[in-house]
Write a sequence for this structure.
C-alpha cells in the first residue's frame, strides 16, 4: 500500500551498530517543526546548524549537527532533515523514540526513495538503481547502477515517448475526421516514424542485453609463478589430466581451458603460463595470452606454494584472491584457502568460494531491474511491429492506434509513468528502511 505522503517519516539512515557517527533522517511536512522542538536554540534559517539536542531520558544535552533541506529540491521532494550525532545505538534509539513521540512515524522499507519517485524526483528505473548502487559488489556493477540512476536507461525513452504520443495524436485526429477529406499523416510518414521508434528500442534492448550475464560461463583463471602447483590444482578441479604436470618449471606454455559444473554453476577454468621473465618470442607470446585470458576472468586465483609463503595477504580484491598450494608439504598460515592436489585437502572450501563468487556474478545488483526493463521493451517492440505491419497491409486506423497505445503503455510501465501499488510494493520492499 502507498502510505500517506502527509505523514512525516523517520528512520536511521546510517548502518545499525556502534560507530563514530549515526544519522537519523526525517521527511515530511512536520520535519522542521519536530527538529526545532528538540534542538537547543534552533535557527530554521540555517541549512547547517551545530548545537545540541534535548532528549527525554538523557540528562545532558546531546551534541549534534542538523542539516535542513527545503522542498522540492530534496531527495524525497519534501522538507528533509538529517541529524548527525554520536553513533551510540542507545543514543540513536532514544532520539528515534523522541521523534516518534512528537508525531512522526517509522518509515517503511524504501519509503524515502518511494516518496522521491511519487514526487517526480526520479523515475522507476532510476529508483531501482538506488538499491543497485547500495548492493553493488564491484566497480563494474557500481558503474552500471550509477549510469542507470543518472537516467542511462530512461533518458533515451523521453523523446521517443514524445514522438509516439505525437504520432498517436495524429492517427486519432484522422479517426475523428475520417468522414472528411483531411489527411493528418500519410502512409510514408507513418512508416518512417514507426521505423525510427523501432530502431531506438532495438538499440536500447541491445544495451540492456549487454549488461546481462545470462548464458555466459563464470571464468576462473589460475595464475602464479612457475611450478606453483597451478596445473595440478587445475586438474584436481577439472577432474581429469587436462594440463601437463611436471616438476620442471615453465611446462605450461599456452593457456588450457576446461568447462565444469559446480553446484549447478557453469565454470570455465583457465590454466595460464607461469609468471616468468621471457627469453624467446614463444615465451613472450605465452605470457601475453595468459595476461589476456586473466583480464577476461571474473575470478583470479593466484597460486602460491605453501613452502614459499612470504607474508602476502590472501585477499587482493573481491576478484583476485591468493590461495596456498602443496599444503601436504607445509600447512601454511591460518586464514588462507589452503589446498593440496595430492590429498584434495581444501578443495571443497575452494570450490565453495568459486560457487559463491559465481552466484554473485549471475545475480548482479541490477538483475531484477534489467529483467523488468527487457520485458517492457520486448512488449513495446512487439506492438510497434504490429503497428508497422498494420500500415503496410492497410489495416483500419483503429488497429494502428491501438497498437501504438499499447506500446506507449509498456514504456510507461517501465519508467513508472503507469504503475500499480503492487508493483511499487515489490520494488521498494527490497530496500532497507533508511533508504
Amino acid at each position: 500500500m502507498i502510505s500517506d505522503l502527509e505523514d512525516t517519516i523517520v528512520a536511521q539512515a546510517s548502518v545499525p551498530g556502534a560507530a563514530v557517527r549515526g544519522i537519523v533522517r526525517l521527511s515530511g511536512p512536520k520535519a522542521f517543526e519536530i527538529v526545532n522542538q528538540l534542538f537547543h536554540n534552533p535557527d530554521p534559517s540555517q541549512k547547517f546548524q551545530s548545537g545540541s539536542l534535548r532528549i527525554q531520558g538523557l540528562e545532558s544535552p546531546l551534541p549534534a549537527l542538523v542539516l535542513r533541506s527545503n522542498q522540492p529540491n530534496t531527495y524525497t521532494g519534501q522538507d528533509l532533515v538529517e541529524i548527525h550525532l554520536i553513533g551510540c545505538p542507545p543514543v540513536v534509539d532514544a532520539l528515534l523514540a523522541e521523534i516518534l513521540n512528537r508525531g512522526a512515524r517509522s518509515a517503511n522499507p524504501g519509503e524515502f526513495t518511494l516518496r522521491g519517485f511519487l514526487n517526480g524526483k526520479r523515475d522507476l528505473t532510476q529508483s531501482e538503481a538506488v538499491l543497485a548502487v547500495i548492493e553493488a559488489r564491484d566497480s563494474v556493477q557500481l558503474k552500471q547502477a550509477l549510469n542507470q540512476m543518472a537516467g542511462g536507461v530512461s533518458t533515451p525513452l523521453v523523446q521517443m515517448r514524445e514522438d509516439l504520443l505525437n504520432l498517436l495524436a495524429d492517427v486519432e485526429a484522422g479517426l475523428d475526421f475520417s468522414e472528411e477529406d483531411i489527411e493528418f499523416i500519410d502512409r510514408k510518414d507513418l512508416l518512417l516514424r514507426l521505423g525510427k521508434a523501432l530502431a531506438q528500442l532495438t538499440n536500447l534492448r541491445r544495451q540492456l542485453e549487454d549488461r546481462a550475464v545470462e548464458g555466459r560461463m563464470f571464468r576462473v583463471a589460475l595464475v602464479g609463478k612457475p611450478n606453483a602447483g597451478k596445473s595440478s590444482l587445475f586438474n584436481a578441479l577439472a577432474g581429469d589430466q587436462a594440463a601437463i604436470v611436471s616438476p620442471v618449471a615453465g611446462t605450461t606454455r599456452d593457456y588450457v581451458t576446461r568447462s565444469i559444473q559446480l553446484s549447478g554453476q557453469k565454470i570455465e577454468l583457465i590454466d595460464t603460463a607461469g609468471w616468468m621473465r621471457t627469453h624467446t618470442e614463444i615465451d613472450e607470446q605465452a605470457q601475453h595470452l595468459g595476461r589476456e585470458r586473466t583480464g577476461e576472468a571474473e575470478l583470479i586465483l593466484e597460486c602460491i606454494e605453501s613452502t614459499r609463503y612470504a607474508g602476502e595477504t590472501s585477499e587482493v580484491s573481491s576478484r583476485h584472491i591468493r590461495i596456498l598450494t602443496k599444503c601436504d608439504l607445509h600447512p601454511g598460515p591460518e586464514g588462507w584457502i589452503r589446498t593440496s592436489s595430492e590429498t584434495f585437502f581444501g578443495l571443497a572450501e575452494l570450490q565453495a568460494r568459486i560457487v559463491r563468487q559465481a552466484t554473485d556474478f549471475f545475480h548482479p545488483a541490477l538483475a531484477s531491474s534489467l529483467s523488468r526493463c527487457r520485458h517492457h521493451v520486448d512488449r513495446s517492440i512487439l506492438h510497434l511491429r504490429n503497428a508497422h505491419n498494420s500500415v503496410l497491409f492497410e489495416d483500419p486506423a483503429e488497429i494502428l492506434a491501438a497498437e501504438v497505445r499499447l506500446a506507449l503503455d509498456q514504456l510507461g510501465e517501465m519508467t513508472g509513468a503507469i504503475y500499480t501499488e503492487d508493483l511499487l510494493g515489490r520494488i521498494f520492499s527490497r530496500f532497507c528502511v533508511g533508504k
In short: The chain has 13 helices and twelve strands. The radius of gyration is 30 Å.
